[in-house]
Write a structure and sequence with these properties.
Layout: H1 2-34, H2 42-53, H3 64-99, H4 111-124, H5 136-159, H6 165-189, H7 194-201, H8 210-228, H9 231-237, H10 241-246, H11 251-273, H12 279-291, H13 295-319, H14 328-352
Helix pairs in contact: 1-3, 1-13, 2-3, 3-8, 3-11, 3-12, 3-13, 4-5, 4-6, 4-11, 5-6, 5-11, 8-11, 12-13, 13-14
Amino acid sequence: MQKQFTLKFLAKSKLLAYVSACLFLVISMLVGISVGTVSIPVMSIIKIIGHEIFPFISIEQIEPMYKNIVMNIRFPRVLLAGLVGAALAIAGAAFQGLLRNPLADPYTLGVSSGASVGAVLTLFFHLTIPVIGSFTLPLLSILFSFITIFLVISFARKIERSMKVETIILTGIIFSSFLGALISLMIALTGDELRQIIGWLLGSVSMRGWEYVKIILPFFILGSGILLLNVNELNAMSFGEDRAHHLGVNVQRRKMIVLTAGSILTGAAVAVSGTIGFVGLVIPHLTRLMWGPDHKHLLPLSILTGSGFLILADLVARTVISPTELPIGVITALIGAPVFGLILIKVRSERSG
């Protein structure tokens, strides 16, 4: 009887988690589209988007200006911010589960910096690979993020065979500093592209339309799909590699798959929005605290909450000192850095206790 009650309670709590996360995302999207220099009523937004999906929905009573603002400016911007937040959050959740440390995320592991180098090189040299065209930027970002994470892992193994998580994170920070210096060198050498590159590095989804949504979407689906197919293996590896091996998990193969998927997500996110730190650190940690460590639920919930969080962060970035816009990376850093410090204190106190 008690077991049945526990199972029912857990089922209800997970249902509550998904309902809460979905509501948070929907409200974030509606607020993100509604608020701005021109305020647009929520019902008008719903009708405009509904008309795009179902043409029989009438929008004759709605001002044409509203439709233009929603469909050409705010909706693609909100979607892009949501996809970037979701990509960074699920990548961070996967890295934390794989490395068994809440301090691991694409930013602290140096993956974001690697992706940034790939993107800056593309912008600096005006690189365009024939056939793939606009996908040159995300593909080179993904390639460099992939190279960076495996250099970090290899270097950490050289330092310490057991590859403690602290060693990996410290190595990631070292690589981030080195790659940051490379980016600074390219900025110092650049000419007309200086403003574009600096603005991009600070992180922003401003003035990016449907083209950028189309660029990130296939990589987001691919990377997220791979991670969601490996939730059982992530659960096993969160107890340690030896335990996972005894449970029948091919640890090295799964580790490569998770790192590759995380690099795809990070590289694509950085390519379209620049470097946005701490989303992959804060969101998975808070989601884990609220709803538990089971990756079957942690990953999809991180997608929903990470998406809503970055939409709201972008809203703050463009309205707090309107008409001037702040880089979205500044907002996430202001929130994320103190949380990072609190997580570090908590981890240290748990280990010393």
